[in-house]
Amino acid sequence: MNQRSIAVLPFDNLSSDPENEYFSDGMAEEIINALSKIQSLKVIARTSSFAFKGQKIDVRIIGNKLGVASVIEGSIRKAGSRVRIAIQLIRTDNGFHIWSETFDRTLEDIFDLQDEISLLVADRIRENFGHMDIEDSLVSSKTSNPEAYDLFLKASHHFKRKDLADVKEALLLFTKATELDPEFTEAYAYIGETYLHHAGFNLISAKEGFQKSREYAQKALNINQKDMRAHKVMAYVHLFHDWNWEAAIQSYNQAVAAGLNNEIDFITNYYIFIQKDYDLAIAIAKENQSRDPLHIISYWWLGLCYYLSGRFKEALSAFEESLRIDPDFSEALRWKGLVLGYLGRFEEAFQTLDKAIELTKGEGLVKLDLMTVKVLSGEIEGVLEELENSHYIDPCDPAALYSLMNRPDKAVYFLQKGLEEKSSMMVSLKYWWVWDNIREDQGFLEIYKQMNFEDHKVHRQHPSNQQLVIAQSSQMTEEECEYFLQSLRAKMALEEVVTDTNLTLRSLAEQIELHPNKLSWLINMKLGQNFNDYVNSHRLSIFQRKVIDKANAHITLLGMAYESGFTSKSVFNDFFKKSTGLTPKAWVKAHRN
Length: 593
Hints:
- By secondary structure, the protein is an alpha/beta fold.
- Helix content is 60%, strand content 6%.
- Residues 488-590 form the HTH araC/xylS-type domain.
């Protein structure tokens, strides 16, 4: 297990108003987003962490299910303009509380509070589990208007649910937030992304959806050129509407540089459709699944990557994992049915698609999937007749079926419509195997030329390697190492420093005038210990010296442990046994004359 790994569990809402649930959820998510900016820290995505919402489950079980070494639990009480947040950081191997604190603030200070909590959590993880670089700030202010931020959290709550009614409500609330604060960058960016979903639900046309998305993303960027979500929206607009491949990847890279994490839909589509780099797309989807192991979407998206790559058996396994979590997830059902068809397991395919049709009441693309399986099973004449009598919103859908049946004239007819209407699936023409039957057709080649696929360079860089390098690099020269090691040893020779129970890596770094990132690296890489073990080894030496001094015979062992700087009985006993192989009593018996 990666020791530098964490899950932020949903915070309990202790407010008198149960409607404040959105606020407690929003605060937990903001901390998840902040911690996700730390490159060396594995942070479980919101959806998997929130799978435990409302359940009283031992953190050791949660840690095992999520594959993390620590979890954050918390509670929030919101009353008027004031908020109280209680936070606990807990080890998942033994349930031990590493750190806890309660914060009382006004809503005007909410972003400073989020930053303070995130930095404290990150510091405690680094002190206990090993070196990682941490930026000096993880959360920036979104708005100076508390009421606008409250609306933003409500809107985000609906946006994450992704169903039709919630997407509509999210747009209204994000818009109200910008009315209260016309400089609310992130709210504008979310409006842009929400319009993409409106188009996806056919609430508006794709053309209008992309136009609105561009408009609001640009509004956000006019205020803040480094807004990650606005750049993400622009990446979608450039890829699926403008067909400007270089602008698309440039916007995505800007989004990643600005802090975009755990959102892989754009980049996997780009690698599959524009670069045919199936292995990288699948690797990214697998990494995402490890960060979100209890979410149906992470398995479903992995399945899509396998399917689009033509790896049907592996796609089937991924879709079945998604359905193991939620047997009624209609999207996984319909894709499973499609994959079964390509594997020649037609009876199972039809049964699976029948269930998907029942769940969706026949809406969406499931009937098209059913026709695809019919074609694969040889029922071509019936499908041709059905296609002639059907209406499709996206012309690329019937085009793909006609291509599968090797009917290039009809396929090209609908692809021409896709070209004129700017269908988002036109990006698939370059490599997707669906079009292989008609690739040599003159009409297809003429449409292909108009897509300007050749006007792009190859980009192959895993997004996790595109993070900004923080200004304070932890690397040090040998001369610097020697100088600061001497300073460190001199400071730790002072008993009052070692026995200070409030000693932290940051406070020690300040005392020897060194950036915390550099001190963390120095202790871990040059001395081979994490900060807590390093400090506790000095406290252990003080305890051993005290305990064999007959003048201290009247003091209990635990009392001397506290005098030596240990903060709890369990910390003292665990570290003593780990360091000496003996219990404190056994060691004292062996060493007292």
